[in-house]
Design a protein that fits this description.
Elements lengths: L39 H35 L3 H17 L1 H11 L1 H21 L3 H29 L4 H31 L1 H6 L1 H15 L15 H24 L4 H23 L13 H31 L4 H18 L3 H7 L2 H19 L8 H4 L1 H22 L8 H28 L13 H39 L1
Length: about 500
C-alpha cells in the first residue's frame, strides 16, 4: 500500500517564492513528481538532507564507543559518561517541537542551514576542550542544533517530492540514512577512537560544514508566514525540556542518594509540576508548541510510542554492551566496531528496497515485525557467558538488531507523518523525533540506575547489573510489540465494521 503521507502538491515550488526573489543559488528545483530521472540538483538536495540526518544518528552512537576511553582520560564514572549521550538526546528531543515550529514560521531553508552551522562549530569546539562539563554542555548544544535540522529537513522533503512513488523513494533514502548513521556510528566510532576519542567529537564538524556549503546552493526557499514572537511558545519549550532534564537527573541520581530520599522525591515532583505546566501552557497558548488535538490520531500516537520504545531499547543496549566489551572483555574500539558492522551493513542494504516494502505492507505490520527482530536479538544476548565466542553470543544479536532497525525506523517515520496537513509537517516530524530522543534519554537513565546500583564485576566477567538491564530492555520491547498488535487488531476490526456498514447501507 502507499505510504500514508497526505501532502500532495500540484504546483511548481518556484511559483511559491516570497516577494523577495531569491538568488539563483537558492532557486527552488522543479517539484519532483516521479521516482526516476532525478536531476543532479535534486540528488544533491537529497544528499544534503539525508547527510545531516546521517550525522545526527552518527553522533549519538559514534561517541558511545569512545565513552570508556573518554572516561579513562577525564576521570568520568558511568553516571557522568551517560550524560555525554543523554545531554545530546535531551537537547535533541527537548527542543524538536520548537524546531518544527521554527521551520514552519522562519523558513525551512534558513532554519536548516543556521542549525547545521551551529552543529559543525560545536563539534570542533567540543573536541578541543579538557573540561568534562563543557563537553556535556556542547553535546547539549549539538542536540539543540539537530532539533532544528531534522524537522526542517523532513519538511523540505515532503514539500519538494510529490506524494506517491517520488516521495516514498525520497523518504526511504532519508530515513534509512538516519538509521544507517546510528548503526554505522559504532563502526566509525571504533575506527576513530583508535586514533583518539577526540576524533569522534571533531569528525562531524567538517562534514557538517561541507553539507552547509552545498546546501546553500541547492536547498529551495519556502514562503514565510507573517508572525511575531508570540507565535513561538518559548514557555512551552522551556518547561518541557526542564521536565525531561529533571526526570532524567532524578532517575540517574536515585541509586546513589536513595529512591525514597527527600531530594529524589522533590525532583520527581518538580518533573511532574513542569510537565503539568507544559500541558496547561499548550492548552491556553494561541500558538501552542504542541497542538494537543493532533494526538487524537491513533496512528500518530502509536508511531510515536513505538519510536520511543525502539530507540530507547537500542541506545540503552548499546551503552551496556559497549561497557561490557571494552571494560570487561578488553576489546579494542576497532574490534568492537567490526563486531557491530553487520548491523550497519544490513541497514544500509535496506535502502535499496525499503521504499517498495512500504508501498506494499502496512506500517503497523512492519513495526511489529521490527520489534520481533529486536526482541529475538535481546533475548539471544541474555545467553551470554564469560568466554563465549563472538559468533555464539554477539553476532546473532547484531544481525537481528540490524534487521529490526532497518524495518522499524523508516516505518515509524512514515506512519508518524501520515495524514498530516502541509502546515503541520514540521510539528509531526518534530513530534516523532522528540519521542525517539525522549525514549533514548529515559531508558539511558533507567539502565544507568540499574548498573549503578549493582556490584561491579571483575574483568572477564559480566558487568554488574548487565543481565537485569538487558531484561528490562527486552521487557520494554515486549510491551511495544503487544501494543502494536493491539493497534493492528483494533484497526482491522474497525475496517471490518466500516465494510459491513457499506454493505448494509
Amino acid at each position: 500500500m502507499q505510504m500514508h503521507i497526505v501532502l500532495a502538491m500540484t504546483v511548481d515550488l518556484n511559483r511559491q517564492r516570497p516577494p523577495d526573489k531569491p538568488s539563483d543559488s537558492a532557486r527552488t528545483p522543479d517539484h519532483v513528481t516521479s521516482a526516476g530521472g532525478w536531476s543532479a540538483r535534486v540528488w544533491l538536495l537529497l544528499v544534503v538532507l539525508a547527510g545531516a540526518l546521517f550525522l545526527d544518528g552518527l553522533d549519538v552512537s559514534m561517541v558511545g564507543v569512545a565513552l570508556p576511553s573518554m572516561g579513562g582520560d577525564l576521570g568520568m564514572d558511568q553516571t557522568q559518561l551517560q550524560w555525554i549521550v543523554s545531554g545530546y538526546v535531551l537537547g535533541y528531543g527537548g527542543l524538536l517541537l520548537l524546531g518544527g515550529r521554527a521551520s514552519d514560521l522562519l523558513g525551512r531553508r534558513t532554519v536548516f542551514l543556521a542549525a547545521l552551522a551551529v552543529f559543525g562549530v560545536a563539534s570542533v569546539v567540543s573536541a578541543a576542550t579538557e573540561i568534562d562539563s563543557l563537553i556535556i554542555a556542547l553535546r547539549f548544544v549539538k542536540g539543540v542544533a539537530a532539533a532544528f535540522t531534522v524537522p526542517a529537513g523532513l519538511s523540505i522533503i515532503t514539500t519538494t517530492f510529490a506524494e506517491g512513488p517520488a516521495r516514498n523513494k525520497a523518504l526511504s533514502i532519508y530515513t534509512v540514512c538516519g538509521a544507517s548513521g546510528f548503526s554505522l556510528g559504532l563502526v566509525f566510532g571504533g575506527l576513530l577512537t583508535e586514533l583518539s576519542w577526540r576524533a569522534t567529537l571533531i569528525f562531524p564538524g567538517p562534514v557538517a560544514i561541507a553539507l552547509l556549503v552545498v546546501g546553500a546552493r541547492v536547498i529551495p526557499t519556502s514562503p514565510r508566514k507573517p508572525f511575531n514572537w508570540a507565535h513561538f511558545d518559548v514557555v512551552g519549550a522551556l518547561t518541557s525540556t526542564a521536565a525531561l532534564l529533571t526526570l532524567v537527573y532524578a532517575v540517574v541520581q536515585a541509586p546513589e542518594v536513595g529512591w525514597s530520599a527527600p531530594s529524589t522525591i522533590v525532583l520527581f515532583l518538580v518533573a511532574v509540576v513542569l510537565s503539568a505546566t507544559f500541558i496547561a501552557v499548550e492548552i491556553r497558548h494561541r500558538h501552542p508548541l504542541l497542538r494537543l488535538g493532533i494526538l487524537r490520531s491513533l496512528t500518530l500516537v502509536h508511531a510515536n510510542l513505538a519510536a520511543a520504545a525502539m530507540f530507547g531499547g537500542y541506545v540503552a543496549f548499546q551503552f551496556v554492551v559497549t561497557l561490557y566489551l571494552q571494560d570487561s572483555l578488553g576489546w579494542s574500539p576497532i574490534q568492537m566496531s567490526l563486531g557491530f558492522l553487520p548491523a550497519g551493513l544490513l541497514v544500509v542494504a535496506s535502502a535499496f528496497f525499503m521504499d517498495r516494502i512500504l508501498d506494499r505492507i502496512s506500517t503497523r505490520i512492519l513495526i511489529a515485525a521490527g520489534f520481533v527482530a529486536f526482541l529475538v536479538g535481546y533475548l539471544w544476548f541474555l545467553r551470554v557467558e564469560p568466554g563465549a565466542s563472538y559468533v555464539v553470543f554477539l553476532l546473532p544479536t547484531i544481525v537481528f538488531l540490524g534487521l529490526g532497525f532497518a524495518i522499524t525506523f523508516p516505518s515509524v517515520n512514515s506512519q508518524a507523518t501520515a495524514g498530516v496537513s502541509d502546515d503541520e509537517q514540521g510539528l509531526a516530524s518534530g513530534l516523532v523525533n522528540t519521542s525517539i530522543q525522549i525514549g533514548g534519554a529515559l531508558m539511558m537513565a533507567v539502565i544507568t540506575a540499574i548498573l549503578g546500583s549493582a556490584e561491579p564485576g571483575r574483568p572477564g566477567e559480566l558487568i554488574g547489573g548487565m543481565v537485569p538491564a538487558i531484561t528490562v530492555i527486552a521487557a520494554l520491547t515486549v510491551v511495544a510489540l503487544l501494543g502494536t498488535l493491539v493497534v493492528l487488531l483494533f484497526e482491522r476490526r474497525s475496517a471490518a465494521r466500516d465494510r459491513a456498514r457499506v454493505v448494509s447501507g
